[in-house]
Amino acid sequence: MLTLKCPYCGVQACETELSPGYEAHLKRFGPGSSDDDFETYLFTRPNVKGVHFERWRHAYGCGKWFLAARCTTTLEVFGTYSAQTPAPPAEIIEAIKSKRPDWSPET
Amino acid sequence: MSNAMSVLEGAVSTGFVTVRDAGLTGMVSVRADLTDAATVAALSSCGITVPVVRQIVDGVAWMAPDELLLVTEYADAPALAQKVQAAMADTHALVHVVSDARAVLRVEGAGTKEALAKLCPVDLATLAPGEVRRTRLAQVAAAFWLEDAENAQIICFRSVADYVFGVLQMSARKGSEVGVFTR
Amino acid sequence: MSFRLPSGGRLIDRTSELKFTFNGRIMRGFAGDTLASALLARDQMLMGRSFKYHRPRGVVASGAEEPNALMNIGEGGRFEPNQRATTAELFDGMAARSQNHWPSLEFDVGAINAKFARFLPAGFYYKTFLYPRHFWKYVFEPIIRQSAGLGAAPKEADADTYEHFYAFCDVLVVGGGIAGLMAARDAAADGKRVIVLEQNGHWGGRAPVDGAVVEGKPADEWVSVTLQALEANDNVTLRDRCMGAGVYDHGYVLGYERITDHAPANDVPRHRLWRIRAGHVVTATGALERPLSFAGNDLPGVMLASAVRDYVVNHAVAPGKRTVVVTNNDDAYRTAEVMVNAGLSVPAIIDARPSVDEALISKFSDLGVEVKVASAIAKVKGKDRVTGVAICAQDSNGSVSTTIECDAVAMSGGWSPVVHLWSHCGGKLTWDEDQAMFRPDPNRPPTNQTGEGFVSVVGWANGEIDQGDIAPVWIMPQGASIETRNKMWLDFQNDVKVSDVQLAAQEGFESVEHAKRYTTLGMATDQGKLSNINGLAVLADALDTGIPQVGTTTFRPPYTPISMGAIAGEARGEIFQPLRRTPMHAWHEKNGAHWEPVGHWRRPYCFQQPGESVEDAVNREITNTRTSLGLLDASTLGKIVVKGPDAGKFLDMLYTNMMSNLKPGKCRYGLMCSENGFLMDDGVVARIDEDTWLCHTTTGGADRIHAWMEDWLQCEWWDWKVWTLNLTEQFAQVAVVGPNARTMLETLGGMDLSAQALPFMGWADGKIGDFNVRVYRISFSGELSYEISVPASEGLAFWEALMEAGEPFGITPYGTEALHVMRAEKGFIMIGDETDGTVIPQDLGLNWALSKKKEDFLGNRAHSRSHMADPTRWKLVGLETVDGSVLPDGAYAVADGHNENGQRNMIGRVTSTYYSPTLDRGIAMGLVLHGPDRMGEVLAFPRVDGTVAYARIVSPVFYDPEGEKQNV
């Protein structure tokens, strides 16, 4: 029963107020894309053990989608941030590195 | 408006707090970028001030960064919507009456926070009056705010008004007081 | 024999006598008794039968860890099995029954199992699978089924109510003993918001029993003073009879408050589940004493040493007149002292340690108690209760040196901290060699959202246990024979013995988790609170390794079982689930609605008239609508408004067909696909003005599609200027359907509804009667149809006005089944019938709705994947049975031959099937291999009963294929 702070309305929401949206920062492939790219977009997920970027919706609250950086094993939350972000922002990367020095965005 | 009927038809239930149908209530949804100067100006021309995050002030409730709920008399909602719509004609905005999509209930009495704390994952001890909390009420979405320590208003979807009344009635049964906030 | 002492008892009130029944016999106890203490006071030592061997069992413990004294308590709607007599507070009128025996507690046929004990070793259940199959079916299964389960299942609905309560605090203290109250006091002094949970009805834990002095005051007095101070602090919430049941992620803790178990009442919730979010959790959960493993350690009269003194001090109940104490540590000597002080006889303390502090020995010798050092119990004597103990040397193989007569045995194998709550969310343990126990490892706490430890442990739970010197003794005597080890119980409730764990190790179940499941050690309702450490030690010894190497099994919440009612909370009966009602719900109910659940909505399936069957009602509704006039409550359909300069572009991405070129005032049917290309929703879109569209969705789709829209707008195309608003519940919507629809509406006066003013697939705002309406000329039935929306608050009045105006035309309300049959007669697909998450528009012959003009829409790219473009995908056709009967729903069409799995080859399946009163025959739609190319072919559909239905492939449009009736 985790809690996440909604970056839009500021509520520290409990899991029962949220709905999960799986991996964040997927790049959409549409018409004209290769079969491989399209397959990757639709189905291929790394199923990370450790630092993970994911989508959540404050479904029972302000209704906004937001993104979270979270450790899948300890449930430590490094930060939540706007969904209108193509890649994790610098301060989130910093926050992760301060807790997980061995982690880098490429891993 | 003689055809319009409140979904709870004036229901009242008395337990350790009173749960009652607040009756037909006028509501207008405004979707617009609330940080945009043109939006703020257009709203201001209608006498509407955008409240700070999660507050309700003078019948204007902050629901999301791009959503306000205007609360007024039921009969006044269509005209209010038209007025706001007209003022925002040149900005990117969506304005619509939602009075009939929702039900408004009141909870009244010293145990108000307690009755709500049985249903909502919200820290009622620190929730200040005038803060709109959109949350889960038992199994449905709802928004509520405390007017003061003993009075709350709850807005839920119309179709589940009976359910919300039912769970509040259950939570407010005499004999089920918890005794946490009323010390 | 066990009995009540003439004086004493810190928890009982001798002036308040309570009457209760046990197995139908009337008994009396005092306020403050538990069921266990009240039974012991009446010399009722036999309290139950064990699970497997039906051994006679008495109470072992005095608290939540009790494995034996499980009772059926209550009657009728308040009956509940498997309640621990040690934590069941006595009340006037309590009705308790013992469990797991037949015909009676004293004479139990199942006890014969004990005679066959050698055939029921560890893993016997699994071993039964190895025998020939018929053995399992005819021999083992009937026997196991007969004997499975402990108490009886309740027969009546629960008479009580339950609820949840959400609470928040800075510091949550679990456990109201000395350590817990000190932690609460400190936190409160720091200005923290504090909640303290105590599982019992009294505070202070064991300290008052053991005569502790705290900060210069006797424990009882200290507790009372401290509680007063805490109660006076507004930042502190104290709850007794409330157990910390489980610790979860991010400081979430469940508290299980038993409000009326000690005093049943009608108007008060029985249990309250506290859903607490704590910044920090302090567990002050104390410790549990371990039994010792010696032959016959399960006989009634053998109890934990601490429990013996609990009963004497708290309830003035003596388990026996002559009590032998057996121990491996100093702490059990307290029991001997308590007994002697109460005027009871302690013939000996059997101490397994090779040497004991001389001062201790002489102190007890002065009290008249002989201390037998380096000694062990070879065997407990007695059949249904203790009559004596045979003594031997601990380092022997069990040759008896002497025998002592006694009627009770108080045993202590040392103490184990209650680490459960520390461990629930990942806190790790460390083995303390000196004290022979696992204790919380402060360096590896459970961590929260910030990555910091959020649980700390204080007092005995942290291993700060005042048990003096202890020697690890896991079986006694050390060299016990196999026959003896076969009589040493580890897990009392599940009947697991030392020999069983050793057998498991011998058979290769070396992992502690495997050995647990193979032997069922620790798998009973007490979850091994008494047995785990002793079992681990035996396993470690059998594997010739250390206890920390073996490790513990996983601690899972709840700490002790909690009621299903508490978990459900308020969600029972009428408010079990939210039930969504349309504005006309009450009218439907009054007028014979036969309900169908559609998501959380209730929609009328049909409206039954008096004496009418459901089938007849559906047929009447269809015929009446097709020939004159019908009325459908369509309020549940989703209505989402989409507005903005980019709204057209957005809808072109969402729908497979074009929506941007729809003219204001017009409607268009549209399809939505997922990115996988599968059909996910459909509905009619109306263009309201230059930058506004209203999208209708299916009943189940409203919230899902609205969320889907917001997902794309917020997460992918956030620079597009589009707003959405879900107006589903703002409007009541009524479909006025049938050849008389226009004529009837015109009698109400108002707007022009002629074909010229409002043609098919148009919409208009206006007035009907005195209602402000929006009218859509759309049809899902194939008839002349107006779908009319009014504000939901006026829905009922509008519906009633239509019913009144329709009376001269014989208007009939119709339900969802008539709707389904009429759409099927027209060959219209239904999301959820023709689609199942694997169907693409092309399968349904909906290629016309896939825009060729658009470069992109959701699902478009997927449609060109090889499997989607496969020409052998099954395609939609109509199916007409040769004999006019109705095809079974979901039936498969078979072809010759078998597939690689040996199954019959299949070439199609039925997706919708109905009796059509219009055509007086069965009609169906289905997906068939090369279907549209096989018109006229007859397919075979085997029925479940072995017969075969034959159906001809036809066009799916059975009725009015030219669409002349809807477009008038």
From TrEMBL, chain A:
GO MF: sarcosine oxidase activity
Gene Ontology terms: biological process: tetrahydrofolate metabolic process
A Pfam family per the record: SoxD
Highest taxon listed in the record's lineage: Bacteria
Protein name from the UniProt record: Sarcosine oxidase, delta subunit family
TrEMBL record, chain B:
UniProt protein name: Sarcosine oxidase subunit gamma
Record-annotated membrane-spanning stretches: none
Pfam assignment, any one: SoxG
Source taxon at top rank: Bacteria
InterPro entries named in the record: SoxG, TrmE/GcvT-like
TrEMBL record, chain C:
Keyword terms, alphabetized: Methyltransferase, Oxidoreductase, Transferase
Species whose genome carries this gene: Thalassobacter stenotrophicus
Record bears the keyword Metal-binding: no
EC number in record: 2.1.2.10
Domain of life: Bacteria
Protein's GO biological process: methylation; tetrahydrofolate metabolic process
Gene from which this protein is expressed: gcvT_4
Record's protein name: Aminomethyltransferase
GCVT N-terminal domain sequence ranges: 584-854
GO molecular function, one term: sarcosine oxidase activity
Domain FAD/NAD(P)-binding: 170-422
PANTHER family linked to this entry: AMINOMETHYLTRANSFERASE, AMINOMETHYLTRANSFERASE, MITOCHONDRIAL
